[in-house]
From TrEMBL, chain A:
Coiled coil: none annotated. InterPro entries: Mrp-like_CS, Mrp/NBP35_ATP-bd, NUBP2/Cfd1_eukaryotes, P-loop_NTPase, YlxH/NBP35. It holds the Pfam family ParA. [4Fe-4S] cluster binds at residues 197, 200. Its main location: cytoplasm. ATP binds at residues 23-30. This is Cytosolic Fe-S cluster assembly factor NUBP2 isoform X1. Binds 4 [4Fe-4S] clusters per heterotetramer. Contains two stable clusters in the N-termini of NUBP1 and two labile, bridging clusters between subunits of the NUBP1-NUBP2 heterotetramer. It comes from Python bivittatus (Burmese python).
TrEMBL record, chain B:
The lineage of its organism: Eukaryota, Metazoa, Chordata, Craniata, Vertebrata. This is Cytosolic Fe-S cluster assembly factor NUBP1 isoform X1. It comes from Python bivittatus (Burmese python). GO terms for biological process: iron-sulfur cluster assembly. GO terms for cellular component: cytosol; nucleus. Its cofactor is [4Fe-4S] cluster. Component of the cytosolic iron-sulfur (Fe/S) protein assembly (CIA) machinery. Required for maturation of extramitochondrial Fe-S proteins. The NUBP1-NUBP2 heterotetramer forms a Fe-S scaffold complex, mediating the de novo assembly of an Fe-S cluster and its transfer to target apoproteins. Implicated in the regulation of centrosome duplication. Negatively regulates cilium formation and structure. The gene is NUBP1. [4Fe-4S] cluster 2 binds at residues 243, 246. The keyword DNA-binding does not apply. HAMAP family: Mrp_NBP35 (MF_02040), NUBP1 (MF_03038).
Amino acid sequence: MEKVEEEKGNLAGVQHIILVLSGKGGVGKSTISTELALALRHAGKKVGILDVDLCGPSIPRMLNVQDRDVHQCDNGWVPVFVDKDKSIALMSIGFLLEKPDDAVVWRGPKKNALIKQFITDVTWGELDFLIVDTPPGTSDEHISTVESLRPFKPLGAVVVTTPQAVAVGDVRRELTFCKKTGLRVLGVVENMSGFVCPHCSECTNLFSKGGGQELAKHAGVPFLGCVPLDPQLTQSLEEGRDFLQEFPKSLAFSALADIAQHLLAEASICSS
Amino acid sequence: MAEGSGPALDARPHDCPGTGSDEAGKADACQGCPNQGLCSSGQLAGPDPALEEIKEKMKTVKHKLLVLSGKGGVGKSTFTALLAHGLAEDETTQIAVLDADICGPSMPKIMGLEGEQVHQSGSGWSPVYVEENLGVMSVGFLLSSPDDAVIWRGPKKNGMIKQFLRDVDWGEIDYLIVDTPPGTSDEHLSVVQFLSSARIDGAVIITTPQEVALQDVRKEINFCHKVKLPVIGVVENMSGFVCPKCKKESQIFPPTTGGAEMMCRTLNVPLLGKVPLDPQIGRSCDIGHSFLSEAPNSPATLSYRNIIQRIQDYCNQNSPQEEKTI
């Protein structure tokens, strides 16, 4: 038994691991990862975010820490803390690039090696949740992440889609990936679901509507809810304003708080 | 192989390091592979013979274009489809679309070809035709169900792309348009490497206006510079949205750092145009119709047409060097 504890290494203090997946790019995986971290923090939890999107890391900018550095300590890499209370910790390849525009032109094996290092060498300390943000697809990053995390029994995956059929088609494949790799699907989130015109409050379904819900029903997995397109939130994520303050005021907040509640409930069932 | 079913995908071990790698034939995964002896012999370290075969195959293809973006969901596949439809309106122009997005192939759906299968003939795999002068090849045509996931690591994806370029019976083609997945990794390196000897006209880069997208797109432009791929220009998609009720414009993905325009100026690449967000674009893609013909008067159509014209002009000026045919 002792050996198991030892093998857990830097992840020993992490209670629950949640992966954020999608077969489709640009559906808001990083946004949902960031916002879920904020919502869980709001609920008093300590959260870590591991960004395994090596070719397109977005989270450092979304949390306005793009200029920070990762430091080495005896046990590995110290993640970047987003706030003074150290309630959100982040690790991303974005912190390892010399110039922000540097392209990471790597084939699979090199990406896999870094992901393994990210999983074993980051000193997360005590965390209630570790959210793992992934790139689109079902390839190297995903296989390596799921394989390396398997000994730590992740709580499951949140699968993100947008409502239109072209996106749902790719996300169906992601659900098959979860099934094949034995990763539990905590549920499907439909993002960018409707846009409320700031001038006249008319709601337009830019990318149609209901695709996520239908997909969840078809696949027999829980539907976690619709998150509307909220330009205010996009803007605050973009400009690096104080999202920790602004986030609870946003339109999307209630939808995200519900999803966070669902995850908290899952986690408590799992722990008991 | 059952008649009418797709060609068999070549089987490689799960963790194949790739035949060009130093580890070829020596990695753990190579144990038991029928090709282990060949790989470890070092004979494969030389130039890949497929490069020569692809060069030969591409002799009948006049222009080769790549559609790239560092960011996902910005409209690469939508743009690829519209560019193909736009160019194919001239019935004398032959267009081929290659979907190099192996894990998330969207082309079959966007082109209205879902459920179609690839057939094999004496001269290779036949593309699936939308119209007589518009053929499409995608891994989507090789899957038996829409739920099938392609859970492949890099080397296997590269092998598929090689097969697409070498074994598909493309025929006489004016434009080969290659749609890619987001990123700067295996698929991109492979397409560029396999087509290197056949001369690629250039890449069209797609982005959306917000900085979170632009930061990934700058990486993609850097990638192009690194692999010496000419950048034809940048298209800014989802650039503003006009409310159908009050007709006022909103920025859904606000260009907080000046959008594509500023990025192009800084990086010294041409901006081909900006396309507004029209909910009809997504709807047309979902049912596999061409948005250009479904909404001929939409500002988005006009903008797309303008961009297509600029790409065509670029290719015409950049025609294959005639001196070679003398």
